[in-house]
Amino acid sequence: MLAALPALCAMHKAGADELSYPEIVLDDVKHVVTAPARWDETDWRTAGWASLAVAGTALIVDRPLRDEMRRHSGNDSFITQVERFGSQYAAGVVGGFYVAGALADNQTSLQVAQDGLAASLIASGIVTPTIKLVAGRSRPRAGEAIYNFRPFSDANSSFPSGHTTEAFALAAVIANHYDETWVTCASYSFAGLVGLARSYHQAHFASDIVAGAMIGTLVGKSVVAHNAALRSKKVVLLPELAPGLIGVRIAGSF
């Protein structure tokens, strides 16, 4: 604890150029939520194509995939474990990157943890829950019509898939922090398995999963790009954990 005192004192003496992690997260929220106001024609065209992709999936894939999963659905332990990477295990992934980065003094791992947490909070804590509430789509296992939407119904929360959103948000963050192709392929492939697991358990239609994947990927990439710009201009106060040390790390470009 004594080793942390200098860093803690530095936090109290923070100047106008220093930006704490909570401030970074708040800035990320503002950046993502207000993004449509900054979109140009190309961005809106991309959003339109993405919407068509979701609608096309709903029309063509939702019913046959639901029926197929009903024939094969069961209690597969592997699929159940994979599914949890879109919920409780996601926190373990973020924490693992943070601990690894803190112990090895690896800035990339630390930034993956920071950006992953921010992307998760925004994508899975704000964007997807809001759309779920507005859409109010019933889940496949409810046995209702495929296109049963009841806006602002607490019981109906199928669209989009929250687990898939979470998995793809983390996958996008990891993939955009590392240049290796295998990291990108592995990250998105595993996220895709999370979505498949949700379909297997009759929790979501195919279009729910596609929408969740798009939201997670978009938010993850946006957070990484925005925070990279912040880090290049600001001094950042980061929590620090290491053997015999609990404090705050001051990082930035000088």
TrEMBL record:
Family annotation (InterPro entries): PAP2/HPO (IPR000326), PAP2/HPO_sf (IPR036938)
Pfam family, one: PAP2
Residue ranges of every copy of the Phosphatidic acid phosphatase type 2/haloperoxidase domain listed in the record: 115-224
Protein's UniProt name: Phosphatidic acid phosphatase type 2/haloperoxidase domain-containing protein
Organism from which the protein derives: Sideroxyarcus emersonii
Lineage: Bacteria, Pseudomonadati, Pseudomonadota, Betaproteobacteria, Nitrosomonadales
